[in-house]
Amino acid sequence: MSTPTAQSPGEAKKTSPFVNSLGMPFVPVPHFETLFCIWPTRVQDYTAFAPEKGLEVPSQTPASGSDHPVVNIIWKEASDFCEWLTERERAAGKLPEGLVYRLPSDLEWSAAVGLPAEEGARPDQRSGQLDGYPWGTQWPPPKDAGNYSQELGIDSFEFTSPVGSFAANAFGIFDLGGNVWEWCLDYHDRANECRVLRGASWFNGYSDRMKSSFRNDLGYPTSRFTSFGFRVVLGVPAKR
Prior knowledge:
There is one protein chain. This protein has helices at about 45-50, 75-90, 105-115, 125, 205-210; strands at about 20, 25-30, 35, 100, 180-185, 195-200, 215, 230, 235. The protein is globular. The strands form two sheets. Strands 1-2-3-9-4 form a five-stranded antiparallel sheet. A four-stranded mixed sheet has the order 7-6-5-8. The protein is built from five helices and nine strands. The protein starts with 17 loop residues before the first strand and ends in a 5-residue tail after the last strand. The chain has one domain (about 20-235): paralog of FGE (formylglycine-generating enzyme).
């Protein structure tokens, strides 16, 4: 049986996501009006975008397929994808006025992963302050908790895995832990040099970096790594 879908973003629910023309499903998260794509942006999604902008899809991890998260994406490319998707959907009459596709804010990402209110005005002040992981409080992580370092022995994927390969969280969202680090809108700290990355990746196996509250401070906007990807949200434009 196919999953029922919402006819408009305002009708989206966990059990009936709003699905755009690329087949990207979006569901609500607590405390925000923003809808989150239930998985990271896939190779097939980025492949629809790149030729229209005269870009090549960057090299992907070994054995990566169209349903794997796209990697080797710098922050601007992720942002440009969101702008392109907004224009595409609006031109097709599939995007209500006032809504845009964009990267999530740091606090929106925290809401999606299920964190309670965090203290600290900036991402660097909030990073790692709350204990717990996307799968719960257990360490080491249980089998199939997500796609992390092979040294942990909890999954069978050496590099990236197809999106949605592991269980969704309470809000119906996949891969908020492991698979790829996800670019966010915010700068990490007051230096305004690095953008926030959340969620850890297939490369990570240390408990501190796998915490739901950890913010990666190595997100220079031009950084291009096979562990860096991104997730799209649908909501009002972010405040600058």
